[in-house]
Every structure is written in C-alpha cells, then in structure tokens.
Amino acid sequence: MNLTVVRPGMLTTVQDLGRRGFQGQGVPVSGPMDIHSHRLANQVAGNDATAAALEITLLGPELVADAELVCAVAGAEIDVTVDGARVAPNAPFAVPAGGRIRCGARRRGARMTLAVRGGFDLPATLGSRATHLVSHMGPFGGRALRAGDVLPIGADGAVGARGAVGAGATGAEGAKRAVPLALPDGGARLRVLPAVHRERFTDAAWTTLVSTRYQVTPHSNRMGYRLEGVPLAHVGAADILSEAMPRGAIQVPASGQPILLMAECATTGGYATIANVITADFPIAGQLAPGDWIEFDPCPRPQALDALRKRPW
Questions:
Q1: If you average pLDDT over residues 74-78, what whole number do you get?
Q2: What pLDDT is attached to residue 158?
Q3: Phi and psi torsions of 260, nearest 5°
Q4: Beta-bridge partners for 254
Q5: Which one of 82, 176, 201, 220 has the largest count of C-beta atoms within 10 Å of its C-beta?
Q6: CA-CA distance, 102 to 6, in Å (whole number)?
Q7: How confident is the model at residue 170 (pLDDT cuts 50, 70, 90)?
Q8: 173: left (phi > 0), else alpha (psi -120 to 50), else beta?
Q9: What is the mean pLDDT of the chain?
C-alpha cells in the first residue's frame, strides 16, 4: 500500500515525534511544528502517537492511493477533498484504491498534519523518521516531498486489519484523545519565562518584549521565526560563547530583532536569549505564518508548569 505524490505543495515533510536523545552529539530533535495536531491526527487515524505522518505547510499536496486507506487531518484549516468530496478534519475518512487526496484553500493556521492508518513505513535515522531539512536527515534524504515520491504505508494500514473508518485510537492513547487546537487567526499571544541570559538585557528591553507586538517575517522557517518590531537593547555584547539552545528560546542578535527558535533549531547558539516560550504554547507558535503577529505575555513558573501538566499530549 502506498501514497504517491502528484503535487508536493509548498512544503510537505514526513515527521514523527522527533529524534530525541542525541542533542548532546549535535543532532537536533526536529519533529512537528504543532505536536498537538500531529498527535491528534494519529489518534483519530488509529495510530500510535509515534507513527510518521505528513506535515503540510500553507499550500497542501495532491496524493493518490493505490489501495483503500483510512486517513485523518488535524491542525490548520485547509480544505481537503477525496475525489472531489470534502472531508471533515479531526475525523477518520476513507480513501478508495485510486482515490486522490487534494488540498485546497487555507483558512486559518499554517500547518496541517495528514496521518494514514498504519503510518508511513520509511527508513528511520537514529530511531526517527522525522525530516530535518537543514542537515538533510530523515526520509528522502531529509528533504521536502517532490512529485513522484512514493510513501509506503505500514502493514496495519490495511482497512481489514483494524476495522472500518469509524475505528479510532484505542487503549490509553484513545482515552486521552485531545480536542482540536484553538488555531490563531492572524496572530497569537505566547507565554514566556525569563531566559538564562535575562541579565544581559536592559529592563526596558524586557518591558518592550512583553508589551509590544512583533511580526513573523518572510525570513522564517522550521528552524526559527525571525521577528520584526521594536529592537531589544543588550547590556554589553549580543554574542555569547556557544551553548545549548532549546526550542522556544528567544535569541536576540546585535540587531535587537528577536528570533524564536522552532522545531529544527540547532542544538547550540551564540546569541544571548531574553526569554523562553513555555512548552504548552509550542503548538500555537507552530501554527503561525509569515505576516502573523506575536505578543509575549510574562508567565510565572508555577503557571507554566500547570499548563504543561494539563496539556493533552
């Protein structure tokens, strides 16, 4: 069983939960920009959370199935049809043998996950099928999909193997099924904690960060969002000795314009960081597109931990 790419869309990649455990060796985690919707799509399709799925960015692909499949989409509101009939998000849908999945207009959000029951059975690198574009690591040589690429489906994808379309996730994973993410509409408020280098910035810089609006520029990607707004002033030099950098860190180079590190961020960096977006808000950040705005809200640590505990994934 396979899905074949007819048109790849703007940026469609294979992703799973990421390549964890190798950051100390300089290997980035990668994985989905919106882990909430990635998990939800897999749950609805009847997969384990670790199954590989497609992350579709802004303009979706056209795919053709060579056997009957069960699929699900979650995340950004992008019109999806099977042989011309529109399918609902966050619910399983059938694709007949020879059926075509087409993506149309985008309404809200930036990234949609398309999961197929059985997951994509592609070679793993360091235990993961996540695509990391910068290092060319992952399926298809670590690149985005192209026309003609063939995506093999795992053996569990056979419709007869686990029931019909209505059969979703079972067991503990199904019991914890998440509700769809509340998608941003033109922008989002993201909660932040002071970063380890907070003292390398003026108090006015912190006040500016948490009281003004920044815009995601076109020079943004899965590695990080370059933001534009009121510059943030350093105390001394912007550069630091290279050290570990987590996803969600807000780096500030000498220009004073912040950079929000995202799923494909490098494991180390040489710019001081003023703040960190809390983990619970990563999925919302992952749904932002160039031109969208961001406002940062200071968040007490107990509140950040409580939000982390309450996340459904």
A1: 96
A2: 59
A3: -95, 115
A4: none
A5: 201
A6: 10
A7: very low
A8: alpha
A9: 92
* Category of 309 on φ-ψ map: left (φ > 0), alpha (ψ -120 to 50) or beta: alpha
Instruction: Identify the pLDDT of residue 173.
Output: 45
- For residue 172, what are the contacts with CB-CB under 8 A and spacing of at least 6? none
User: What percent of the chain is predicted at pLDDT more than 70?
Assistant: 93
Tokens representing residue 173 in the block: 């994973």
The answer to whether the beta carbons of residues 5 and 65 sit under 8 Å apart is no
One DSSP character per residue, the chain reads -EEEEEE--SEEEEE-S--TT-GGGT------S-HHHHHHHHHHHT--TT--EEEEESS--EEEESS-EEEEEEEEEEEEEETTEE--TTS-EEE-TT-EEEEEEEEEEEEEEEEETT-B----BTTB---BTTTTBSHHHH----TT-EEEBPGGGSGGGS-STT----HHHHHTPPPPP---SSEEEEEEEE-TTGGGB-HHHHHHHTTSEEEE-SS--SSEEEEESSPPPBSS-SEEEEEE--TTEEE--TT---EEE-TT--SEEEE-EEEEE-GGGHHHHHT--TT-EEEEEE--HHHHHHHHHH---
Could you tell me which residues come within 8 angstroms of residue 2 by beta carbon, excluding any fewer than 6 positions away?
A: 65, 66, 67, 150, 151, 152, 153
Amino acid 97 reads A
Average pLDDT over residues 129-151: 96
Cβ 106 vs Cβ 58: under 8 Å: yes
Q: What is the pTM of this model?
A: 0.90
